[in-house]
Design brief:
By secondary structure, the chain is of the alpha+beta class. 18% of the residues lie in helices and 35% in strands. It folds into two domains: 66 residues, Arc Repressor Mutant, subunit A, CATH 1.10.10.10; 119 residues, Ribbon (Umud Fragment, subunit A). A hairpin with a 7-residue loop joins strand 1 and strand 2. The longest helix is centred in the N-terminal third of the chain and has 17 residues. The termini are far apart.
């Protein structure tokens, strides 16, 4: 039977995973339940593992996996948050959704999230309207990578990135009918890089 402190730790871990799509670190667990000791938080986590509430994966920084998210055949399953829509045409305002997506282990990892594509500017990359793109949170990316770019702190778009020598940033579509968008670098914030996509029937 779990103690009240262990129950509080378990509740925090579940809420953290539901909200972020990845597990908290030991320090984040300690902070989340209002204690200063990583050692005490680690003991709570081990107790939850002994109780069958979670599994600790070796070799991973964020190594907590809830047993209720594990597949029946022993494979890992996970939910990541569907945060909203992403333009593949003219940038649109990002509106958060509360929907969660179950995806297979190919797309599961730290800092992953999903966006639903709206538009046709990336069709030559095989990314079509209404596809679900899986992205990885990041604040910087290399030229040639497909990125989630936030323009003027309010409009997000999915494009190929190019940093220009004159201090501007090009957001390049993969559609010959559309033009490259060029912005001053300070107007563009990288929010993530494209990992893969799901196309639902």
């Amino acid at each position: 039977m779990l103690t009240l402190a262990q129950q509080r730790a378990y509740k925090f871990i579940k809420q953290f995973i539901a909200g972020h799509g990845y597990a908290p670190t030991v320090m984040e667990v300690a902070q989340g339940i209002g204690i200063k000791s990583k050692g005490v938080a680690h003991r709570y986590i081990l107790a939850l593992q002994d109780a069958g509430k979670l599994v600790l994966q070796q070799g991973r920084h964020r190594n907590i996996e809830l047993t209720e998210n594990r597949g029946e055949l022993g494979g890992s399953t996970c939910q990541i948050p569907l945060l909203g829509k992403i333009a593949a045409g003219k940038p649109i305002e990002v509106i958060a959704d509360n929907e969660m997506l179950d995806i297979n282990a190919l797309f599961v990892g730290e800092n992953r999230y999903a966006l639903r594509v709206q538009g046709d500017s990336m069709i030559e990359e095989g990314i079509f309207d209404n596809d679900l793109v899986i992205c990885e949170h990041c604040k910087a990316a290399n030229d040639g990578e497909i990125v989630v770019a936030l323009v003027d702190d309010g409009e997000a778009t999915l494009k190929t990135l190019k940093n220009n020598r004159n201090g501007t940033v090009s957001l390049i579509p993969a559609n010959p009918n559309l033009s490259t968008m060029v912005f001053e670098a300070q107007r563009v914030q990288i929010q993530g890089r494209f990992v893969g996509l799901l196309r639902l029937p």
